Amino acid sequence: MRTLLTVIGTRPQYIKYAALSGRLSPHFHEIVIDTGQHYDTALSGQFKQEFHFGADFRTLEHSGLEGTARFTAMLDQIDAAIVQIHPDLLLCFGDTDSTLAAGMAAARRGIAVCHVEAGERSQYADGSRIAARKVPEESNRMIVDHLSSLLLCTGQDAAANCREEACTGSIAVTGDIMYDLFLQGRDQLPRASELLARHGCPGPPYYLCTVHRPVNTDDAGRLAGLMTTLNELPLPVLLPLHPRTAQRMRQAGIAPGPGALHLLPPLSHGETLALTAGAERVLTDSGGLTREAFFCGVPSLCLDDVTAWHAICRRGWCDLTGADASAIRRALERPAPAEHDPSLFGDGNASARVVESLVDFIA
Predict the structure, then answer these.
(1) CATH of range 187-344; options 3.40.50.2000, 3.90.1520.10, 2.60.40.420, 3.40.190.10
(2) 342 within 8 A of 295, measured Cβ to Cβ
């Protein structure tokens, strides 16, 4: 049996891997490396418990490193694991530093890289592309696409981007594995009312918000302004705090007073989805949560300046506001679109297509 080494390390990657994990084991000897990029137990620990991952699971040492030092440590440790394991394929997801480290390590050792969500590219509100050098996530996904032997795309637009950029790997259009997981779990979600009561939150109605990307957390002025805007909104704003956001707020002395904001601990995937489905709006800089809000039929605001999921914006289900207070308030006043078609992200069989593509590739 061929050996598949899968590399994950952040909340969205735990979720994406969960959509695939049960389907991979009949075809591959499976080893998973968790880079520890989201090293906080409240993030990585709870997702491992929630999804009951059964593969050989190995977690790298993070030692509290950040930035280039953390990336270098991930690269070295993944490289050492590849030398030890000798995998036939390496599977990675999305656009994180974990993804880039995995792709670079595998390519250096001549191991075929298979990239889920290949070809996604960030755009401004007017549809123009952002320069890769301006956003680490954008450069990460572009580099890994050019290192990859198998480009697993959620849709035809992403596949077209890979062709336009002359990526040399084989292209397969699969649909979105996150949509698969949503369809599988939507009937088993906890009740939003129970979660609100447990955390002492008012509502409904309420807004759900997440903030974690460097564009919002690394600039203390922008972060403070965003928190002020959120705290002044007309409905309660439930904000599960990412550990990095909490740390940046402490460092900058940002402590919102009484107002709309209700700060929560990090939530499980099921809890987040339940609160998403019950929200009036979702305000987030997470591409994953933007899609999950769309799956639930809940309009969202993207608190980033660009998004890779511009198709949702074109259909009116997401407003690209950044952290601009006026744009946020205007977007919250707009009614939800009349039409909702989640088949934009496939038919719920993306996971099977990913596995089939991996098996066909290595045959």
Answers:
(1) 3.40.50.2000
(2) yes
